[in-house]
């Protein structure tokens, strides 16, 4: 009896934690399940009959694949731009002392603390008053803007965790500033930059609220889902959702395994 | 590689480094002869690491000049000077294996044939066979050797070592001290070694400079500094000293006469830093002997009376505290040679010494006796700011 | 000199010119690095926010075709509050309730991963983030399936009598709050995990050693030390939750709509930008006020 009480005392927090994880994964399981569903009617969300047709006929619903492609493109361009802008800023903040540091930090923090609703409507107000045609370009502008801050924070953290003496050691060993950057700083910061880029891509690809205000007639994947919700969601949407989940998970596992293999040799 | 006629001594003249209002190094002048093993010894924050960084080029002096032979290197960038550093906690490149870490300097200088050099260097530090390991896969001692090999392979004119053994445990540290000494003799390069560990400095270096508050307090061979310290700081930073506040009244017959606490003492003039005014009379604890009464004091020795207040047995010796009539507690280390029976706490004793072993130092007016050692705090922070 | 070139340091042609050159370059370098990103943020974050403020003061009688005139119409604010009062209150109420639930379930999760998971730590951490890999809209729609009237969950709740015979979950406030909690939970758990992970277990043992019960140890040691993470986490959870309208739109009905739904319709369907801008601007002001007082009260400036 005593032993059981002890065990419960030690494990109840873990048990609650695992239940919360189940809650987090429940919808994922449903999405994966529904990706194999042949719905009974267009507006039905319930499981009806097993089929692999949604996976084989992914581009069946009009415009779905085009929307996914458009999101991927915007995501890619926004990621490249935001990663470059953000990485430069992170280097400035982590490696230099200068006047206006606090203001810069605030400028980077604010977009992360502002609801998307406010940023979306602000940009819309700007674009309409400037007479800019809403569409691909305005979406891209918006996505770069809200990705930059996350890139700065991620890369800056990596830079802060890096021993500044490594760069001094490189200089001491005859590396010019350019060589120091190329041979020491960049390889060591790269994991942070890659992580920031992945984060930026997923933020951009999945953004709905800001995009919704600034897209005009351009349809990204989230916009497609939103629109389809009124007419009835084609089950292929769940295929895209499941595939996104699987790809991202594989990416994370791959980097994890690589890290583990490197770590295993230490022991 | 190094040729005495061409290379030369490392010279710092009137070097000052300020960080904002704080002066880390204060008008420091210093010559390190070529091929010597030189130690900069001091507590954390004394400016020794800043001095080292100015030689490496990682810090620029506010004023003053750093010369290597006849070449002014004061304003050269780190990668432009023939000086390499073994960093505190090594700063090995974590993304490169041992081989590439050691080859780093050669590759930056576009030297093609690196393999044989790297292998020879790794053999010198006894790390052959570790070429493919990453720094994280090495023990502390092995990392230390890689850092040493990585710097030495470039045949610098001066090798700087910043607390190179600080991260190692005691036993490994002793081992590496001997190893470093061996390597230095083998390669004949000037070593400048920064440390807060007096024993480390004394074991390895030919010349030790004791630093405090950005200045050099004393410079010399370890035995010289220990036997005849120049200042009260050195007397208690390097080992321990009993310093009694007294007044010197000039010389008489080759001795300096010091009166303290109504007693008169004589110290040979060559062992006195001052012969008039406020002085400290100093004697090292191991130079003191204890006898029961004045009658037992050997001829020619001088003495003070007191009571034993504490006795600690530390193996090689027994360390006593003897309270004098005026309240100061003297430290006395009695060797554990078996010649004398241990003395009990509370015994009345007379502490005596040969005048040849005493020394006289300058004292600031109003300063009292100093018999407790300066606390030796480890230099945990890498960059002294 | 032959020796120097032999041992490495490349001979330098003009050693005297370099340091000054590089020193002045060093002074300008940070600004150069900041310029593109900073300009982007100013142009597309600061300027639009100012424009939003301006739009909120436009003459509301204008239209998209005729354009809007700046008439400093401060009356837009009371009008907008009168129009969308219930939605504003609902936004803050739903977000607050969701935040409390989020802390109640997120804290044990973060604690379990940080202190109890051992070598499964990283795996569990990935599990917290993994649900976010799927599209926000798609996983919210999945809740529509889970909560649907013919679904197993509603059926079970009806059978045990928690819900009435025709009781439902979908299109109720419960569904909206549940959706909010679900979607933003990882934002709360991650910073909380970060500060709990740093927590030295020896402190907990010391507390136990000094006669504190596990409960007292939690209240007196664990909770205060995890405060920075808790503050950051609740803000990261609360802020997007207040501004969200996807959950309300997909899982609720017209009686559960939040301020975001009103702003959305003001801009995109009802064509009343000044009203939408006023509400949006108001929302931002309230949130900033909450953030700064909260951060100050909690005594940690770490998040800002």
Say what oligomer this is.
heterotrimer
Quickly count the helices of chain A. Answer: 11
How many structural units, i.e. domains of chain C?
A: 1
The proportion of residues forming helix of chain A, as a percent range, comes to: over 70%
Nearest-angstrom radius of gyration of chain A?
A: 23 Å
Q: Roughly what fraction of the amino acids of chain C lie in strands?
A: under 5%
| Termini gap of chain C | 55 Å
Overall geometry of chain C: globular
Order of helices and strands of chain C: HHHHHHHHHHHHH
Indicate the proportion of strand residues of chain A.
Answer: under 5%
Query: Largest contact between protein chains?
Result: A-C, 88 and 92 residues
- Any idea of the CATH topology of the largest domain in chain A? MetI-like fold
Largest sheet of chain A: none
Number of strands of chain A: 0
CATH architecture of chain C: Orthogonal Bundle
Poorly predicted regions of chain C are 1-21
Membrane topology (chain C): Multi-pass membrane protein
Domain ABC transmembrane type-1 (chain C): 88-296
Subcellular location (chain C): Cell membrane
Keywords (chain C): Cell membrane, Membrane, Transmembrane, Transmembrane helix, Transport
Report on this structure.
The complex is a heterotrimer of chains A (267), B (385) and C (304). With 267 residues, chain A is mostly helical. Helices cover 77% and strands 0% of the residues of chain A. Chain B has two domains: 10-227, 3-Layer(aba) Sandwich (Rossmann fold); 240-362, OB fold (Dihydrolipoamide Acetyltransferase, E2P), CATH 2.40.50. In chain B, strands 6-7-8-3-9-10 form a six-stranded mixed beta sheet, with helices on both faces. Chain B has a five-stranded antiparallel beta sheet with strand order 13-12-11-14-20. In chain B, strands 15-19-16-17-18 form a five-stranded antiparallel beta sheet, with no helix packed on it. In chain B, strand 11 (242-252) and strand 12 form a beta hairpin. Chain C has a single domain (79-297), classed as MetI-like (MetI-like fold, Orthogonal Bundle). Chain C is globular, with a radius of gyration of 27 Å. Residues 1-21 of chain C have low confidence and may be disordered. At the B-C interface, loops of B face helix 1 and helix 2 of C.
């Amino acid at each position: 009896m005593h032993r059981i009480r002890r065990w419960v005392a030690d494990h109840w927090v873990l048990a609650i934690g695992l239940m919360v994880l189940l809650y987090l994964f429940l919808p994922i399981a449903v999405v994966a399940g529904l990706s194999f569903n042949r719905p009974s009617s267009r507006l039905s969300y319930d499981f009806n009959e097993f089929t692999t047709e949604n996976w084989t006929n992914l581009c069946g619903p009009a415009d779905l694949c085009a929307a996914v492609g458009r999101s991927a493109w915007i995501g890619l361009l926004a990621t490249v731009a935001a990663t470059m802008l953000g990485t430069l800023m992170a280097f400035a903040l982590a490696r230099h002392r200068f006047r206006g540091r606090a203001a810069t930090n605030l400028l980077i923090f604010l977009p992360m603390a502002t609801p998307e609703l406010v940023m979306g409507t602000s940009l819309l107000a700007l674009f309409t008053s400037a007479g800019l045609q809403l569409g691909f370009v305005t979406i891209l502008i918006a996505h770069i803007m809200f990705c930059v801050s996350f890139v700065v924070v991620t890369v800056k953290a990596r830079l802060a965790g890096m021993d500044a003496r490594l760069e001094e050691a490189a200089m001491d060993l005859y590396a010019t500033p350019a060589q120091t950057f190329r041979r020491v700083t960049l390889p060591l910061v790269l994991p942070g930059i890659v992580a920031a880029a992945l984060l930026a891509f997923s933020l951009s690809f999945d953004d709905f609220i800001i995009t919704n205000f600034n897209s005009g007639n351009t349809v990204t994947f989230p916009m497609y889902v939103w629109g389809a919700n009124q007419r009835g969601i084609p089950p292929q949407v769940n295929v895209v959702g499941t595939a996104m989940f699987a790809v991202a998970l594989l990416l994370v596992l791959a980097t994890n395994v690589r890290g583990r293999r490197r770590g295993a040799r230490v022991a | 590689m190094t040729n005495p006629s061409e290379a030369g001594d490392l010279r710092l003249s009137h070097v000052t480094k300020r960080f904002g209002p704080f002066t880390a190094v204060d008008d420091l002048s210093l010559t390190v002869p070529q091929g010597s093993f030189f130690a900069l010894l001091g507590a954390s924050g004394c400016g020794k690491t800043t001095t080292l960084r100015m030689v490496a080029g990682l810090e620029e002096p506010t004023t003053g000049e750093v010369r290597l032979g006849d070449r002014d290197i004061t304003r050269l960038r780190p990668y432009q000077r023939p000086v390499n550093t073994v960093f505190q906690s090594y700063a090995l490149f974590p993304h490169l294996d041992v081989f590439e870490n050691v080859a780093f300097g050669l590759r930056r200088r576009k030297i093609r044939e690196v393999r044989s050099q790297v292998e020879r260097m790794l053999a010198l530090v006894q790390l052959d066979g570790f070429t493919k390991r990453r720094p994280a896969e090495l023990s502390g001692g092995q990392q230390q050797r890689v850092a040493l090999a990585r710097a030495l392979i470039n045949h610098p004119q001066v090798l700087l070592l910043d607390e190179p053994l600080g991260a190692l445990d005691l036993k490994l540290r002793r081992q590496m001290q001997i190893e470093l000494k061996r390597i230095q003799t083998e390669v004949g390069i000037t070593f400048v070694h920064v440390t807060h560990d007096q024993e480390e400095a004394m074991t390895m270096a030919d010349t030790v400079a004791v630093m405090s508050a950005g200045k050099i307090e004393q410079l010399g061979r370890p035995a010289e500094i220990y036997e005849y310290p120049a200042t009260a700081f050195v007397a208690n930073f390097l080992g321990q000293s009993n310093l009694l506040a007294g007044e010197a009244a000039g010389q008489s017959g080759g001795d300096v006469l010091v009166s303290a606490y109504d007693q008169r003492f004589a110290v040979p003039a060559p062992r006195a830093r001052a012969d008039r005014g406020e002085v400290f009379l100093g004697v090292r604890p191991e130079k003191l002997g204890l006898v029961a009464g004045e009658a037992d004091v050997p001829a020619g020795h001088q003495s003070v009376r007191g009571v034993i207040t504490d006795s600690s047995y530390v193996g090689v010796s027994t360390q006593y505290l003897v309270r004098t009539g005026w309240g100061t507690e003297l430290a006395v280390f009695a060797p554990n040679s078996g010649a004398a029976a241990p003395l009990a706490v509370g015994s009345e004793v007379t502490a005596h010494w040969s005048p040849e072993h005493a020394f006289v130092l300058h004292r600031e007016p109003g300063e009292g006796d100093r018999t407790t050692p300066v606390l030796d705090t480890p230099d945990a922070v890498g960059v002294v700011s | 000199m032959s020796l120097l070139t032999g041992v490495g340091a490349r001979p330098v042609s003009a050693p005297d010119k370099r340091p000054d050159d590089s020193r002045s370059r060093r002074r300008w370098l940070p600004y150069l690095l900041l310029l593109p990103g900073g300009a982007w943020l100013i142009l597309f974050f600061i300027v639009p926010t100012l424009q939003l403020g301006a739009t909120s003061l436009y003459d509301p009688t204008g239209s998209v075709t005729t354009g809007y005139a700046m008439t400093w119409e401060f009356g837009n604010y009371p009008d907008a509050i009168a129009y969308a009062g219930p939605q504003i209150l609902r936004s803050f109420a739903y977000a607050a309730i969701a935040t409390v639930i989020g802390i109640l379930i997120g804290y044990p999760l973060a604690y379990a991963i940080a202190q109890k998971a051992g070598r499964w730590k990283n795996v569990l951490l990935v599990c917290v983030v993994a649900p976010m890999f799927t599209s926000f809209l798609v996983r919210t729609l999945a809740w529509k399936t889970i909560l649907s009237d013919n679904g197993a969950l509603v059926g079970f709740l009806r059978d045990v009598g928690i819900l009435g015979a025709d009781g439902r979950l979908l299109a109720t406030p419960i569904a909206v709050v549940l959706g909010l909690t679900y979607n933003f939970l990882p934002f709360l758990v991650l910073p909380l995990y970060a500060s709990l992970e740093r927590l030295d277990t020896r402190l907990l043992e010391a507390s136990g050693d000094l006669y504190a019960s596990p409960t007292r140890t939690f209240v007196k040691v664990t909770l205060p030390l995890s405060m920075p993470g808790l503050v950051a986490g609740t803000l990261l959870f609360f802020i997007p939750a207040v501004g969200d309208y996807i959950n309300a739109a997909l899982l609720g009905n017209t009686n559960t709509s939040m301020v975001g739904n009103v702003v959305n319709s003001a801009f995109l369907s009802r064509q009343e930008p000044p009203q939408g801008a006023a509400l949006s601007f108001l929302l931002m002001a309230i949130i900033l006020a909450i953030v700064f007082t909260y951060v100050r009260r909690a005594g940690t400036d770490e998040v800002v």
